């Protein structure tokens, strides 16, 4: 379990580089940044103050003071800016204070009226983009659960049979909703939260919000983005076809698989993240699919305590060792439906690797071999 607060070293470096006296953030409830900075799974607001080498948290009197060996935690019911200023005063009565761009306006006013000049920093955002060993272990554990959940869907589809041009499983018509429930049940058994992100879609008939009965020959996309007990997310999507005829969906799947492989070639430390994203799109389109109308724009980006973090795969950031990326290749057609493959990749010193070895096949029976 990833221990305690994070980001302190990165904030200290930013303080030192800028000549500031400290850093202040107002952490809102269970916001991922709050969990990252405080190490707490809290539903209440926390005033976070970092002095060089020291973390100070101020919480309201309406809650029990949480345990926090790595931080000084005290009750303070004053407005956030005033509570932070009181901590800063032990270091200096004036000076520059670093804050994220999201610092509330009223907190900023209180800090400025107390004599502090504010300067925006992306230190926390940048630190979150690179995962340490404990964070990577947490994400990898969620990915294992995601693989088992997708496997549960594959087993159901492999066991289904065709009756009156529909798929039947366990003596009843098989629908997107029945699969979604089984996938979520598997995630629960694995000890992770579906986070409301499990989707099962088929063909061109929807399936995201309602139960759609499944038929042979249509691509069925099962996608999960579960959240583990420490808050870290995973992401996995696979496409299945029962009784495929080898038509459009086969060609689309070959294109998505090739695009998926491109990330293993291009996502090295020092590579341009936007270039990796453009190569994924270009490889997908190389199989004759329209870049404008069929190839997905969302090819992924950073993943951690949030499903979407830095670095995005459509920006100009440089990939670094420790980046964990959601890599997505997908093709959508107005008549045939959608094919998608999504995985989680980690950038390591000797190159990238996917965190699971989940099969990519369209044939669900291959998952049971």
From TrEMBL:
Top-level taxon of origin: Archaea
Pfam family for this entry, one: Peptidase_M24
InterPro entries per record: Creatinase/aminopeptidase-like (IPR036005), Pept_M24 (IPR000994), Peptidase_M24B (IPR050659)
Domain named Peptidase M24: residues: 174-348
Annotated PANTHER family: AMINOPEPTIDASE, XAA-PRO AMINOPEPTIDASE P-RELATED
Official protein name in the record: M24 family metallopeptidase
Organism: Haloferax marinum
């Amino acid at each position: 379990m990833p221990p305690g607060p994070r980001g302190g070293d990165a904030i200290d470096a930013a303080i030192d580089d800028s000549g500031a006296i400290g850093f202040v953030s107002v952490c809102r409830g269970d916001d991922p940044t709050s969990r990252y900075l405080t190490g707490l799974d809290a539903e209440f607001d926390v005033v976070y103050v970092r002095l060089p080498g020291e973390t100070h948290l101020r919480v309201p009197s309406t809650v029990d003071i949480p345990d926090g060996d790595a931080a000084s935690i005290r009750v303070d019911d004053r407005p956030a800016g005033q509570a932070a200023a009181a901590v800063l005063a032990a270091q200096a009565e004036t000076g520059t204070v670093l804050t994220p761009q999201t610092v509330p306006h009223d907190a900023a006013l209180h800090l400025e009226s107390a004599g502090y000049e504010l300067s925006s920093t992306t230190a926390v955002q940048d630190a979150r983009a690179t995962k340490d060993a404990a964070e990577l272990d947490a994400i990898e554990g969620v990915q294992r659960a995601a693989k088992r959940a997708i496997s549960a869907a594959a087993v159901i589809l492999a066991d289904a049979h065709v009756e009156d041009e529909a798929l039947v499983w366990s003596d009843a018509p098989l629908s997107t909703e029945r699969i979604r429930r089984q996938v979520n049940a598997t995630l629960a058994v694995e000890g992770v939260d579906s986070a409301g992100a499990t989707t099962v879609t088929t063909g061109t008939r929807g399936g995201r919000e309602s139960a759609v009965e499944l038929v042979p020959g249509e691509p069925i996309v099962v996608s999960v983005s579960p959240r583990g007990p420490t808050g870290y997310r995973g992401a996995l999507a696979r496409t299945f076809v029962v009784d495929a005829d080898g038509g459009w969906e086969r060609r689309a799947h070959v294109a998505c698989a090739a695009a998926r492989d491109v990330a293993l070639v291009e996502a090295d430390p020092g590579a341009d993240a936007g270039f990796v994203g453009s190569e994924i799109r270009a490889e997908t389109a190389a199989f004759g699919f329209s870049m404008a109308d069929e190839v997905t724009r969302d090819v992924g980006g950073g993943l951690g305590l949030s499903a979407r973090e830095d670095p995005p795969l459509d920006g100009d950031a440089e990939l670094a060792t420790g980046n964990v990326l959601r890599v997505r290749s997908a093709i959508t057609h107005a008549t045939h439906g959608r094919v998608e493959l999504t995985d989680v990749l980690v950038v390591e010193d000797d190159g990238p690797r996917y965190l699971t070895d989940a099969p990519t096949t369209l044939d669900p029976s291959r998952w049971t071999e």
